[in-house]
Amino acid sequence: MFDINTLKFDEKGLIPAVVVDALSKKVLTVAYMNRESLEISMKEGKTCFWSRSRQELWRKGETSGNFQHIVSITADCDRDALTVEVLKDGPACHLGTESCFNETVYQSEENHGFSIDGLMEQLEGRKADKPEGSYTTYLFEKGLDKI
What we know:
The chain is 22% helix and 25% strand. By secondary structure, the protein is of the alpha+beta class. The strands form two sheets. It has a four-stranded mixed beta sheet with strand order 2-1-6-5, covered by helices on one side.
């Protein structure tokens, strides 16, 4: 069993927690945990954070119903940051969006990573535009049996 006493909490007793959707691998939010909220999270199997603005424990979903069920918690190599993989009951952001990260600051024209959302967008585009010579177009034209 991992000893949480080996984690490096900052001078305020906090450690950043990057919350990731266990299915899509999309970053949902970055929050902070103190020792107590981490222990609660591990005991209850749902995320609990320390609200820096309210200076109190914050159980994600206790007012919205959008709980985050923990799949795993992993420490980084320096043990001063965590990733928390979750299965979520609803939107992660208080604005009602799936993730708190929706504002693209920069995107390379040359380098693109794979995503399920990107694949779905490409398939929908191929279905709508039916470009000649596309294998996807061929599949759509032949129907579900061929697909």
